[in-house]
């Protein structure tokens, strides 16, 4: 499709091409010189900020903030070295003879005279680079993609935006096709890369959509949902820096391996401040990785679980009759047994329930009020007049008497979320009582029973979060401790200043006040927004990106939406790839009630990952998994034919040879074997050197990895071997799982089956290998 000139290192043989390369090299040299200058300046400012002497806590804080800013800028300037500039557009302006040449890159640069020499890809001025088409040129006469390696311009591809001379691919709307295909053909590394140089027009619309509301990006496999969502996060951080830097951005992905896979994209775009979490990690202190089976997951994901958790909390807020088998509250104190009348207790408990506060916060009211009532009752018992002024002191003393403490604990205990659920799951009677009031049938109630101490599953985490929300924390003690900590820090700084002045070290500038003061406190360095957000369950994020969102249950959505009071979310997924029991059937059904009228669905329809011959196989599977749904259209129309191979006999005899063949065929790149949950360990054991994902192990960077369909979701590999498709199909949402499995390949697909090839893969019978 490249009209006009096309040049590359090997083909730069005409003088016009050589001249174009030389012109671009000269411009790129200017940009790198400027980048070097800026780096040196930032380095200088950073050391100045560190050396700057300040006294007083506020001034020190300001210094820290400045130093942090410079360090961030240094990081940003460091991350743009490779591919600093990747494009140019020539724009015709009315009344001007020569078009304006505008260069697009990873960051914006101005020269010493403040003239723009490079436009940040996220700035409005860069938009025509991605959005101009021959039908809507936006003033662009030519779009040029630059290939720059190690500061050398090694190739150029031009699109002349002339509607008269359209090729087929231009009609289908591809932008910068040569550069796009070049990047799609590269071998996979086990890490997703950025696509700033080749963002397509439909993706650009998603990336630059406004911040507010819930934007759902629905698209088939390989349509760039993940990569577009990450570029959108970088775009939003750039465009709304003030808001988002303070509140932070959360990216939620399906599992730790996936988060590692996408973990380089934002830093490569100069943004390293997003918090990346799986659903199983949303509650600080819990790291759930295992999933429940289909039936358990279905029950735990149901919205009725919110009623269950609420009922479980209320069940622990007892009246005296439930706690002590009597209407009145009898408490043994050091002075004898005192009685608080049932009516008084009932009033206190009813008021507490009506306060609209979280359980542990309302507890403060219950405890202080009842302690005073007990103190009053004790005075009656001792026939002492009740002195209202003394009551707080008497109450405080009673709090330290064990039986009093125990009596109040039985009425309204302090509860943590893990304790609440642990005790509910472990107590059949409580489950019966609470489950019934939440509308669960006996089968569902029985499913929730769990052995004490069993590890939490990912599906438990939204329930724990719900519990934490209803229980709340009485953090008045923490707040007081924080005030004390700040006051102590001020004292330390004052002391350090005095000490340094006395010793004369201050004048010599040999040691800084802050460093000296920090010898005395162990608070550590100031934490970033991301650090603070990650540690705080109640943190309100400025924006949340949810990937593989089709898997989230109603309870999962509650846990996520709770973290963005502004309901500013980017939600990406594919309903046809839903495998989980609690997963979504419709985006509006899942989200509309969280933000009525603010849910907007965008569609991506072009597949950048999987060549057409493999997508034809996937389309057959999709027709069974989700009849009536259209598969996305592949950018790459040609590729190696997919094949089926019958493996008779044990896996360890058939698979290793097959894997070796694939490794030979792809050269540098990655092979994945994707199989049924029940076979995954067996298959991994059959292939020497094959890796399985595990906590702390980066299995995806290994050359051969073995995964279940669930684990493979969102990932891609040069070659995919689907092992035992018949067993994958037997799983609860087997056809959807098989669809996920066959759409992971960027170049080659092999199906290794034992027994008959499943009818849904019949197309492969016609291909070689059987
Ligand atoms: N504009 C583009 N330029 C270059 N590569 C692209 C572009 N868009 C997508 N890709 C590549 O296509 C592949 C698929 O993208 P991505 O994983 O984001 O798709 P997805 O829609 O999230 O897929 P899935 O539903 O299977 O998770 C990635 O390698 C990505 O880098």
Automatic annotation (TrEMBL):
It comes from the Bacteria. ATP binds at residues 219-226. Residues 1-20, 471-492, 627-651 are annotated as: Disordered. Residues 1-13 have a biased composition (Polar residues). SUPFAM superfamilies: P-loop containing nucleoside triphosphate hydrolases. Residues 198-611 form the UvrD-like helicase ATP-binding domain. Keywords: ATP-binding, Helicase, Hydrolase, Nucleotide-binding. This is AAA family ATPase. It comes from Nocardiopsis coralli. The lineage of its organism: Bacteria, Bacillati, Actinomycetota, Actinomycetes, Streptosporangiales.
């Amino acid at each position: 499709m490249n009209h006009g000139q096309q040049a590359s290192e090997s083909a730069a043989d005409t003088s016009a091409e050589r001249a174009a390369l030389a012109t671009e090299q000269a411009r790129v040299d200017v940009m790198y010189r400027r980048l070097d200058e800026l780096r040196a300046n930032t380095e200088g400012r950073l050391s100045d900020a560190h050396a700057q002497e300040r006294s007083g806590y506020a001034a020190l804080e300001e210094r820290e903030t400045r130093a942090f800013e410079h360090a961030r800028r240094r990081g940003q300037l460091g991350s743009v070295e490779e591919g600093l500039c990747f494009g140019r557009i020539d724009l015709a302006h009315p009344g001007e003879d020569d078009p304006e040449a505008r260069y697009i890159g990873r960051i914006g640069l101005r020269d010493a005279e403040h003239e723009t020499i490079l436009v940040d890809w996220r700035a409005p001025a860069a938009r025509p680079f991605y959005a101009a088409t021959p039908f809507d040129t936006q003033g662009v006469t030519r779009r040029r993609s630059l290939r720059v390696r190690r500061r050398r311009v090694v190739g150029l591809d031009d699109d002349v935006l002339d509607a008269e001379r359209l090729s087929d691919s231009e009609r289908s709307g591809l932008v910068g096709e040569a550069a796009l295909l070049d990047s799609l053909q590269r071998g996979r590394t086990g890490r997703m890369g950025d696509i700033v140089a080749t963002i397509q027009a439909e993706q650009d619309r998603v990336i630059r959509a406004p911040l507010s509301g819930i934007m759902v990006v629905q698209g088939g496999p390989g349509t760039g949902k993940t990569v577009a969502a990450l570029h959108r996060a970088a775009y939003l951080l750039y465009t709304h820096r003030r808001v988002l830097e303070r509140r932070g951005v959360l990216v939620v992905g399906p599992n730790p391996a996936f988060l590692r896979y996408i973990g380089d994209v934002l830093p490569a775009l100069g943004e390293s401040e997003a918090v990346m979490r799986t659903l199983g990690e949303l509650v600080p202190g819990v790291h759930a990785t295992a999933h429940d089976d289909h039936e358990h997951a279905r029950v735990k994901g149901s919205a009725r679980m919110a009623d269950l958790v609420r009922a479980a909390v209320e069940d622990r807020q007892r009246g005296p009759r439930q706690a002590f088998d009597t209407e009145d509250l009898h408490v043994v104190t050091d002075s004898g047994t005192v009685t608080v009348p049932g009516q008084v207790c009932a009033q206190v408990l009813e008021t507490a329930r009506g306060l609209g506060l979280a359980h542990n916060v309302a507890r403060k009211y219950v405890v202080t009020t009842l302690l005073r009532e007990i103190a009053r009752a004790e005075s009656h018992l001792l026939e002492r007049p009740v002195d209202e002024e003394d009551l707080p002191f008497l109450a405080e003393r009673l709090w330290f008497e064990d039986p009093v403490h125990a009596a109040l604990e039985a009425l309204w205990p302090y509860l943590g979320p893990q304790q609440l659920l642990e005790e509910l799951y472990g107590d059949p009677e409580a489950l019966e009582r609470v489950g019934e009031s939440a509308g669960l049938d006996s089968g569902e109630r029985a499913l929730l029973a769990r052995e004490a101490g069993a590890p939490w599953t990912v599906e438990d985490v939204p329930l724990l979060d719900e519990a934490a929300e209803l229980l709340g924390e009485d953090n008045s003690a923490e707040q007081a401790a924080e005030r004390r900590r700040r006051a102590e820090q001020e004292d330390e700084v004052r002391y350090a200043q005095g000490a340094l002045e006395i010793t004369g070290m201050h004048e010599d500038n040999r040691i800084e006040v802050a460093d000296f003061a920090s010898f005395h406190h162990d608070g550590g360095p100031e934490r970033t927004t991301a650090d603070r957000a990650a540690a705080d369950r109640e943190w309100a994020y400025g924006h949340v990106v949810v990937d593989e969102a089709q898997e989230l249950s109603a309870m999962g959505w509650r846990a996520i939406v709770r973290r963005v009071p502004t309901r500013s979310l980017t939600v990406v997924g594919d309903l046809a790839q839903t495998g989980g029991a609690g997963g979504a059937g419709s985006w509006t059904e899942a989200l509309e009630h969280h933000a009525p009228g603010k849910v907007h669905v965008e569609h991506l329809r072009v597949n950048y990952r999987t060549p057409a011959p493999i997508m034809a196989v996937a389309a057959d599977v999709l027709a069974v998994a989700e009849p009536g749904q259209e598969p996305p259209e592949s950018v790459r129309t040609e590729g190696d034919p997919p094949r089926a191979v019958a493996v008779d006999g044990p896996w360890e005899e058939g698979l290793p040879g097959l894997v070796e063949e694939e490794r030979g065929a792809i050269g540098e790149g990655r092979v994945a074997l994707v199989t049924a949950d029940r076979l995954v360990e067996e298959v991994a054991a059959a292939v020497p050197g094959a890796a399985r994902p595990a906590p702390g192990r980066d299995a995806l960077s290994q050359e051969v990895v073995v995964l279940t369909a669930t684990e493979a979701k969102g990932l891609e590999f040069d070659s995919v071997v689907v092992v035992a498709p018949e067993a994958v199909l037997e799983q609860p949402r087997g056809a959807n799982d098989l669809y996920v499995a066959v759409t992971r390949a960027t170049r080659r697909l092999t199906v290794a089956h034992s027994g008959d090839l499943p009818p849904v893969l019949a197309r492969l019978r016609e291909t070689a290998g059987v």
